[in-house]
Amino acid sequence: MKGLTSLLEMDGLSLVLPLERVFDDLPNVVFFIKDRAGRYLAVNRALMERCALAEKARLVGKRPSDFFPTALAERYERQDRRVLESGKPVLDQLELHLYPNRGRGWCLTSKYPVLDRRTGKIAALMGISRDVEDSASRAASHGLPELAQAIEVLQTRLQDPPEMAELAELCGLSTVRFTRLVQRVFHLTPRQLAMKVRLDEALHLLATTDSSLSDIALETGFCDQSAFTRHFRRMTGVPPGIFRSQTARQ
């Protein structure tokens, strides 16, 4: 779709805003618009580069399954269909992304239905994924030793993860203050942050060891393999065993 624009009304003036160009200037944000069939209509430079392509046009008309590991592509496409069919947006969904030109990374993804102004029906879908930076380095860069300590506690107590109130107390903060700091620095809730730390370790173990899923579940603080599988699937769209086998072939 050439010249994708959004018409904004400001103080009686109509401004034509080239959305692709705006999002091209945000290196840590992926932006895209898809049609009802799930094909890309428009993308920004970040998505193009992460798919190891030289031109954005190479993505247009294609689906996630043309570029991403099967496990993740199926998740993205199911999520797209849910938004297109229900008309309800997905907001700040913490999920794992894998791109052809880099390792895994966590993102906060939001997707919105786009309405045809003439018919009022859903015509497309717009999505934005913001990178979630490495938790420890982000805490250090903000000069917040309390949050750096929280990350350390979460990483060292994988098998016995603390409740949020206990974690806040260990960091010398009230629960309210701790929650606000986590949201301001990481753009995550404390529960999302804790789950990210545990699943980061699970991903590492899946990729670098032959440990059984039940052992990995216990090592990362889940009560059993069933609970581990449920949480893992919520973040990646597939069970950990399938994720391990499919990503190993990429």
From TrEMBL:
Coiled coil: none
Domain named HTH araC/xylS-type: residues: 148-246
Keyword Ribonucleoprotein: no
Gene3D superfamilies xref list: Homeodomain-like, PAS domain
Keywords assigned by UniProt, alphabetized: DNA-binding, Transcription, Transcription regulation
GO molecular function: DNA-binding transcription factor activity; sequence-specific DNA binding
Pfam family, one: PAS_4
PANTHER family registered for this protein in UniProt: HTH-TYPE TRANSCRIPTIONAL ACTIVATOR RHAS, HTH-TYPE TRANSCRIPTIONAL ACTIVATOR RHAS-RELATED
Name used for this protein in its record: Transcriptional regulator, AraC family
Organism: Chthoniobacter flavus Ellin428
